[in-house]
Structures are given as structure tokens and as C-alpha cells.
Amino acid sequence: MPTPSMEDYLERIYQLIDEKGYARVSDIAGALEVHPSSVTKMVQKLDASEYLVYEKYRGLVLTAKGEKIGKRLVFRHELLEEFLKMIGVAESRIYEDVEGMEHHLSWETIDRIGDLVQYFEEEPGRLHDLRLVQEKNESEK
């Protein structure tokens, strides 16, 4: 299993490849706000762990293993964002909260959150009921 730091890189690399068709060290560094030398070190670790294939000066490609994990990490991130929006967390807090949560939740918990999101999507009346409870609680503060 990749470390939380490796997950951050794999998630961003997957997104860059999905968006642009490629991911360069400079793109990854900019996206993660780290130095290119840090990216190179991590990419070498990811290569050694068989998540991607990296050739100096030629770029990188995700392996099937890296692509599978990258896709799942992006899904996790998007699901947590959707969940927090759904339960009424302020937009300005969502990214920071997702970043704080995503590495600390088990995949079983992520799956249960997915079930809850699906439930609220299929039962919008229940989501409305949740909003009413939230409004009531806010007015009582």
C-alpha cells in the first residue's frame, strides 16, 4: 500500500494524465506546490514500487497498478467533496477538510460514505429533511 505522500502524488499524476495526456515533473511540482527535486525523488520511489515507469528526461507513465490506485484515489477525493457539500459544509472549508480526512479513513468507511451519498441522491426528500434539522440547530445557537 502506498504511503499518504505517495497517494497524493499518484492522485495528482493520474489527474494530470487524465486532463493533459501526460504528467511532467514540473507539472506535478506546480500542482503539489513542491520543488521539482522532491517530485523526482518521489517518482523514483513510485517507480521502484511499480506504480509507474519513470525514465529521466523522458517522462513517466502509470503502470496498470498505478492507474488503478490513482483512479480510486481521485474517486475518494471527489466522493468526500460531494459528501461534505451534501451535508452542508462551507465551500471554503471543503478542500482542506478533504485533504485532512482522505488518508485517515479506511476504504470500508469510504464505501459507507458512498452508500450515504447514493442514498441522499436517490432520496432528495431526506436531504431536504437534513437541511431543515441543520437550520433548526443553527437558529438555536
UniProtKB/TrEMBL annotation:
GO terms for molecular function: DNA binding; DNA-binding transcription factor activity; manganese ion binding; protein dimerization activity. Mn(2+) 2 binds at E11, H77, E99, E102. Its main location: cytoplasm. GO terms for cellular component: cytoplasm. It is found in: Cytoplasm. Mn(2+) 1 binds at D8, E99, E102, H103. Residues 1-63 form the HTH dtxR-type domain. Keywords: Activator, Cytoplasm, DNA-binding, Manganese, Metal-binding, Repressor, Transcription, Transcription regulation. Pfam families: Fe_dep_repr_C, Fe_dep_repress. PROSITE patterns: HTH_DTXR (PS50944). DNA binding is strongly activated by Mn(2+). GO terms for biological process: intracellular manganese ion homeostasis. Belongs to the DtxR/MntR family. Homodimer. Central regulator of manganese homeostasis. This is HTH-type transcriptional regulator MntR. It comes from Alkalicoccus urumqiensis. The gene is mntR.
